[in-house]
Amino acid sequence: MAGGPAVSHGGGREAHYEGRVTGHVVFACIVAASGGLLFGYDIGISGGVTSMDVFLAKFFPGVYNKKHSGDLVESHYCKYDDQGLQLFTSSLYLAALVATYFASHTTRMFGRKLTMLIAGLAFLVGSILNAAATNLAMLIIGRILLGVGVGFANQAVPLYLSEMAPSKYRGAFNIMFQMATTIGILIANLINYGTDKMAKDGWRVSLGLAGVPAILLCLGGLFCYETPNSLIERGHKEKGREVLAKIRGTDNVTAEYNDMIEASEIAQAVKSPFANILQKRNRPQVVMAVLIPLFQQFTGINAIMFYVPVLFNTIGFGQDASLYSAVIVGAVNVLATVVSIIVVDRWGRRKLFLQGGVQMFVCQIMIGVILAVKFGGTSELSKSEANGVLALVCFYVAAFAWSWGPLGWLVPSEIFPLETRSAGQSITVGVNMTFTFVIGQAFLTMLCSLEWGIFIFFAAMVFIMTFFVAFFLPETKGVPIEEMIYVWRQHWFWKNIVPASDFPTSTKNVAN
Asked: Can you give the residue ranges of the Major facilitator superfamily (MFS) profile domain (predicted)?
């Protein structure tokens, strides 16, 4: 493919990095990755709750009446088409979009650790409000606070994981965020399956238990180290070296420490990261920070994960079977993410992106064809046909979970230099939350309008983004973050955008 294999980036000094994966790194990364539990739990919980009759009768009686009307004139695809119901799901991501820009400044000025603590606290308060909600306004306010937590967590956690992990294991450690996200989705689906059987207020238990991962993040975060990169960036150089030695398990950290110092000096000269990020030499990273999270959402994954019980209910599963199927999908999601953790630093990012894209494309086309041929607007699938759709959804989710799911967060978090890293991550989270909101708000309406064609729409988007990766994304496996700029300089396309003369002097010296 035109994107090419992994390149020699020219920095050289990473060969002298010493250290190992220590208990400090493992503990810190597990705690940080629990921020993914916040994100995943919400993704999984909202779809199950919005399919519960007790919840719908209380907050969305119009949807409840339409669901149980027995009117065969109206298409099954339109059972849940309600803007208010979609706003319940999507309002969180609109709040996260706003929060991430505040989180960018907090991450840069006060560190990754404090930002994660703020995320946990906001999510805890939001979960309490949701569990206690007596009206729609209270429910939405709680969702907004959850969004603040998600925005701060998604800003800080991927950076924290990338900076704490040794460069040769960075992919696996960073994917712990996505792993925790998938575990959160699975736990949420299991809880929904149980609480749906409660006589009343099962939805309160589902929404209130979101506070558990928030507490884990807050308490665990108190005992974590700040990243050496952040300490050095904020002027605590000796503390940064001390922490680096602890997390690497050796005092011989001079090579890695000096690279961090040089990167910090460049960062200190930058007064406005958001202005600096627009410079020509940062253009490839900005393109990736915008397009990768945009494409990630247009795989259609969150539409399915938000509404998987609703989706299965729509195509003929009963309520109990719909929630059970969501559990199966959630389990596949977790197991496939484990695959990504195992192979990402062996096979690289590009191979997983490309393989996952092809598999998702095929599955979505097949789902669309089955629904077009076998599932009319008012007819239902047979049991075997519905199970076939479930199997295809599982294959689709597996492909996403070892490719675009974790890599959609990993690659943007590892490609920016220190001086623009917080701004770059803010762009990534902002774009992700924007289109998560758009998909969350529009999916049920799109399902009603496009019917089976919605899967063809998402398949077309997967085709485009797989083509993009094949030709424009270089391999970043094993490249130290502070020397990532050499990857762009040696890429067939980006080398024409990022000439060597644009490199900071101190960074060029690393190669000499």
From this structure: 28-477
Task: Report, at the CATH architecture level, how domain 21-511 is classified.
Answer: Up-down Bundle (1.20)
Q: 319-347 vs 301-314: helix axis angle to the nearest 10?
A: 150
Dist. CA 421–CA 156, nearest whole Å: 11
CA distance linking residue 224 with residue 157, whole number of Å = 12
Instruction: State pLDDT tens for residues 442-498.
Output: 877 887 788 788 889 999 999 999 999 999 999 988 887 777 888 888 888 998 888
Ranges of each domain in the chain: 21-511
Q: Give the dihedral of Cα atoms 101, 102, 107, 110; nearest 10 deg.
A: 160
Residue 68's CB is within 10 A of a number of other CB atoms, namely: 12
Spatial contact of 300 and 455, defined as CB atoms under 8 Å apart: yes
- What residues have CB less than 8 Å from 187, skipping those under 6 apart? 37, 40, 41, 44
- Residue 409's contacts (CB-CB under 8 Å, 6 or more residues apart) are 154, 158, 174, 177, 178, 428
In 274-340 the beta strands, taken as DSSP E runs, fall at: none
